[in-house]
């Protein structure tokens, strides 16, 4: 029954991990949708077709960005009950709208402090999370390279060269005509990669398999929550992407040219790289680069 959708979603761990403002927005979206569904006598999941979902979103008459936000909020809301009852999510079949230039704003992620990095790596190593060794390696690789989570999860052995990683970042592949980036392998990164087994074409096969599955990044968010590492309205969100922000911030503070750094990270403009350059003064630069901390912790295990 549609009437029980919200109750099940509100009890889910993914909802509990949301910031208060996001919870309030999602709840308001649900209330609006619930009243609309009731007015159309839609009571079951079977009666809520993709066409009905589209009709609701179109009835709001808002900008494409708001349309997409509502669509994504409702898709997440229905995910728990659909997953539990093995039913198709009606909002999965509703396409997102194209965001016009200037309408979309990139989410900001804050950098991790050195203490937070140390605590995260130690917590992951000591956890009982599924694919623990791969998650630990993913964190270490991200700190060595600044790669996005998707690029780390889908990193293939074919991209691992003797002295570098050569890959096409997913996010900028179309904008750069699939231009590959070359990332120099530090001694620590070489050691990490050498310790991983070759199970298939992926360096981290467990994360690759789970990426498109329900709540693929939830294990990492649980670690952050347990450690009390939170988002900050002024500095940005806290998440796996914060590793990337940390690398850029530390590298810029060390005097690395932003144009060169942008090329390595897969940014299509210098402005995008500058977006990451913030809060450097709050990071303990005695551990610069972050690879030193990863290497030091690796020696202790």
Defining traits:
301 residues, hpI Integrase, Chain A, 2 domains, two-stranded antiparallel ribbon, 15 helices, 3% strand, elongated
Uncertain residue segments = 275-289
Total of DSSP H or I helical runs spanning 4+ residues: 15
The total domain count is 2
Return the structural class.
mainly alpha
Average pLDDT: 80
Strand order of the largest sheet: 1-2
What is the H-and-E element order?
HHHHHHHHEEHHHHHHH
What share of residues is helical?
A: 40-55%
| Envelope shape | elongated
Beta strands, count: 2
Quote the CATH topology of the largest domain: hpI Integrase, Chain A
Q: What is the rounded Rg? A: 21 Å
User: What is the percentage of strand-forming residues?
Assistant: under 5%
* Most strands sheet: 2 strands, antiparallel
CATH class of the largest domain: Mainly Alpha
Distance between the termini: 50 Å
CATH-level-4 superfamily name of the largest domain: Intergrase catalytic core
Tell me what the structure shows.
A two-stranded antiparallel sheet has the order 1-2. It has 2 domains: 2-84; 114-299, hpI Integrase, Chain A (Orthogonal Bundle). By secondary structure, it is mainly alpha-helical. Helix 6 crosses helix 11, helix 6 runs parallel beside helix 15 (290-299) and helix 7 packs parallel to helix 12. The protein contains 15 helices and 2 strands.
